[in-house]
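Researcher: I'm preparing a figure for a lab meeting and need a structural model of a single chain. I don't have an experimental structure, so a prediction will have to do for now. The sequence is pasted below. Please return the structure as tokens so I can convert it later.
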Amino acid sequence: MMYWDGNMGAWVYALMVVGFVLFWGAIIAAIVLFARSMSPGNRGRTGNGPGGSAAEDLLAERFARGDIDETEYTARLAALRRARGA
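Model: Understood. Here is the structure written out token by token.
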């Protein structure tokens, strides 16, 4: 059996301080990450407005770059909205 005389060395105190800092650092980091995940800016991008989607955003970017013309843009946008509504 091990005899405990109550006299801890300096390294034990140093380990206790490091453990204390790591424990509370982890608690604070968890709170900060939770708060950031719940903020309105990080809820995932749903488009430019109500009912928007990432596909519509991509289509709008292609139209803005000139990859597709206006008739193709409107036709594809209508097809996306029909598919989403079905």
